[in-house]
Amino acid sequence: MALNLVMFGPPGAGKGTQASRLGRKHRIPQISTGDMLRDAVHSGTELGRQAKVIIDQGGLVSDEIVLGIVRERLVQIDTQKGFVLDGFPRTVVQASALDEMLKDRDSLIVVELAVPDEELVQRLSKRRVCSECATNYSSDNGNLATTCERCGADLVLRSDDREEVVRGRLKVYEDQTRPLVDFYQPRSTFKSVDGNREPDIVTQAIEKAVDEALTQL
Question: Residue of 21, 51, 59, 72 with fewest CB within 10 Å of its CB?
């Protein structure tokens, strides 16, 4: 059985970290729409230029753009044994479209990472991004790195991690993404995990939730 997994939660909840760990453990690809969009922004493509304006304002990129990216990615051969979707779906419209994409595949497991807003604001204020290759960095002890380990370029505060933008992003999440809980909650394969803990503890809780969901398929 393929492990088809969605991980969602507010900005800064740790979706990327946890999705990466799950992907490595289960040897399935982590699919991050955020990373794909940031790559487009960094490369200066037409899609990137359109997305940059929206991202800098803390908004959500249009369903049409995101669905096209995801649809194309999910037909690639490395997703046959499963995948971890990180940052998608973000709206009920996207979730319904994903169900349609997966109608002939194994069932979807959905994990929500729940973290209080004030904790998220603090986390994101400590995050930096490489000015050249767009790799994300974070610090829980205040000792922020200044250069990228991958390419040596300077690390900067992401434009969408400024406090006023973060609070706007959280409002967007509450209005547009939070309804996903209502959409997925009736399913036996929906699990909510407390993300306001040490990353290793959160990882253990997610693995337990995924195991429970698999037994209910």
Answer: 72
Q: What CATH number did the domain enclosing 20 receive?
A: 3.40.50.300
CB atoms within 10 A of CB 84: 26
Model confidence, pTM: 0.76
- How many CB atoms neighbour CB 158 within 10 A? 18
Q: Looking at the domain assignment, is residue 174 inside a domain?
A: yes
Task: Answer yes or no: are the C-beta atoms of 114 and 18 closer than 8 Å.
Answer: no
Whether residue 129 is contained in a domain is answered as no
Task: Tell me the pLDDT tens digit for each residue of 161-217.
Answer: 788 888 888 898 888 888 999 999 999 999 999 999 999 999 999 999 999 999 988
Which residues carry out catalysis?
Answer: 15, 90, 127, 158, 169
Q: Print the domain residue range for 67.
A: 3-116+162-215
